[in-house]
Design a protein that fits this description.
Two copies of one chain form a homodimer. The first copy, chain A, is mainly alpha-helical. Chain A has six helices and two strands; from the N terminus they run H-H-H-E-E-H-H-H. In chain A, strand 1 and strand 2 form a beta hairpin. The longest helix of chain A is centred in the last third of the chain and has 17 residues. Chain A is elongated and about 55 Å long. Chain A starts with a helix and ends in an 8-residue tail after the last helix. The structure holds a DNA duplex (30 and 30 nucleotides).
Chain lengths: 143, 143
DNA sequence: ATATAAAAGGAGTTAAAACTCTTTTTATTG
DNA sequence: CAATAAAAAGAGTTTTAACTCCTTTTATAT
């Protein structure tokens, strides 16, 4: 349903939201080790997050990634759009072209319900809430 | 969420369920053209369906695929197991190892609900019902 | 200023899924 | 029994996502 890249992006962004606030910076090394994500691949993904303004970064010694004013308010679905594009939102479970409510494939309604529920969750929850959950020990970013 | 192969397998099996009963046989050519699925690739997939006993086939001139006593009663989830393996049933949306209700990722509950709903539908509905829907014009296998 | 450590960027490789081509087997029909 | 038409099988190729490596830029600290 979602790419691995999305999972990496989401977890890493949440990690920075937790550990990279109040002037603290987090390095790629730390993130990739803590979350068990390939170092260089994560580099690319983080670039993208910064480019889209979801996080900030600074180069040089003692540089790294850190949360900015947008980070906490970013709905998870924003990250999905960046990593997986907007095609996710309307492609058919059976890959039929022009499958829609009027011309449905045999799984259209079931799948629409399933996916829309999921997308709703991703639109409602933001990085700040997700980070808070993790900090409260209610859910985990790794292992 | 599901592979393209699953979509091809499901649609083709339903097609045979509709057009390959009462002694009638359906050829690969016809299926792949009607459903716009690559001919040879579909060949492989159909082999698998036959191997698993979901359909029967016969070689030679006027050979082809046809429904057997199991075809109609096969729940859709059977086909999913064949094409995508059983991993689909418990892998985490964020690809975290050992994500479960006790140790959930931040999307575990939302995703479990979404996926379980979908799997429930696939377990409840069988090929016969799906074929009937299509024959009644309630849903479509192509276009 | 220079060395250094970090992210950014470019360009490549690998792995898996999707798809193709060719040959073999087998049933049918003339 | 020969020709044919279909599925089965084997072995490739292509495409895409996932991942790696190397170089460049830039901020920091000495």
């Amino acid at each position: 349903m979602f790419s691995k890249t999305f999972g990496y992006a989401l977890r890493a962004t949440a990690y920075v939201a937790i550990h990279g606030k109040n002037g603290k910076k987090v390095g790629l090394q730390e993130i990739s080790q803590s979350l068990d994500i390939p170092h260089h691949f994560l580099g690319k993904i983080m670039q993208d997050m910064v480019r889209h303004g979801l996080l900030d970064s600074i180069k040089g010694p003692s540089g790294g990634f850190f949360a900015n004013e947008r980070t906490m308010d970013t709905p998870l679905v924003e990250i999905l759009k960046i990593t997986d594009g907007s095609l996710v939102f309307d492609q058919c479970a059976l890959n039929i072209k022009r499958c829609n409510a009027a011309n449905p494939c045999p799984l259209h309604h079931e799948f629409a319900q399933c996916r829309n529920g999921m997308l709703h969750s991703l639109a409602e929850k933001n990085i700040g809430q997700m980070a808070a959950e993790v900090e409260a020990g209610e859910s985990y970013l790794a292992r």
